[in-house]
């Protein structure tokens, strides 16, 4: 019993001390003039008002770019890639990969035209995997939404847009 009482008192003291300090700080703040308190508000609002900052240039970590694609572009892989693409990507990148999805248009984004063989030519499969996993600028990341296999399937599917236009050469 005695032990419990001591504990209770100790607890009360502990709980009371920051409370008391806060109350004292408050009374001090209200007694000094309010002009001093105002500048604190400014940085928060100005930071929130700049969502239109241009995205940083896309830089794929070299290590990520070297990761080989473990998924062959089988019919199953491409079908799964298309399924996910139509749900998560087409609104920006367009069903045909032209980069003119309704969301890209309304957000005034200009994603690359995947049909252009040059668009992703210099990006390795590992690099695409990294971009799709991590997102970039307004493009959200797929981590957590998709499994690794799903993301490789997306890589395989995204590649097909350019292949349709220029079927002759591969890789
Ligand atoms: C909100 C719109 C939006 C969505 C949704 C979106 N993207 Fe993007 N994506 C972009 C924009 C904008 C860029 C250009 C980014 C940049 O270079 O700054 C881009 C770039 C890319 C690139 C090009 C990377 C490179 O090397 O140039 C790939 C690949 C890509 N997206 C794949 C996808 C896939 C796959 C999905 C769906 C899982 C997806 N994106 C969803 C807007 C979007």
> Percentage of helical residues?
40-55%
Strand residue percentage: under 5%
Low-confidence stretches: 9-16, 29-50
Shape: globular
CATH homology superfamily name of the domain at 62-165: Cytochrome c-like domain
SS-derived structural category = mainly alpha
Q: What average pLDDT do the residues reach?
A: 78
CATH topology of the domain at 62-165: Cytochrome Bc1 Complex, Chain D, domain 2
Distance between the termini: 79 Å
In this entry the ligands are: heme C
Cα radius of gyration in angstroms: 27 Å
* Name of the top-level CATH class of the domain at 62-165: Mainly Alpha
Structure annotation, total helices: 8
Give me the count of strands: 0
Largest β sheet strand count, sense and barrel closure: none
Secondary-structure element pattern, one letter each = HHHHHHHH
* Named CATH architecture of the domain at 62-165: Orthogonal Bundle
Notable characteristics:
mainly alpha; binds heme C; 0% strand; Cytochrome Bc1 Complex, Chain D, domain 2; 171 residues
In words, what does this structure look like?
It is globular, with a radius of gyration of 27 Å. α7 crosses α8 (148-165). The chain contains eight helices and no strands. The chain has helices at residues 2-31, 41-48, 62-66, 75-88, 90-93, 102-106, 125-134, 148-165. The N and C termini lie far apart (79 Å). The chain has a domain at 62-165: Cytochrome Bc1 Complex, Chain D, domain 2 (Orthogonal Bundle). It is mainly α and 171 residues long. The structure holds heme C (HEC). Heme C binds next to α4, α5, α6, α7 and α8. Residues 55, 58, 85, 88-89, 91-93, 103-104, 109, 111-112, 120, 123, 128, 131-132, 136-139, 142, 154, 158 line the site of heme C.
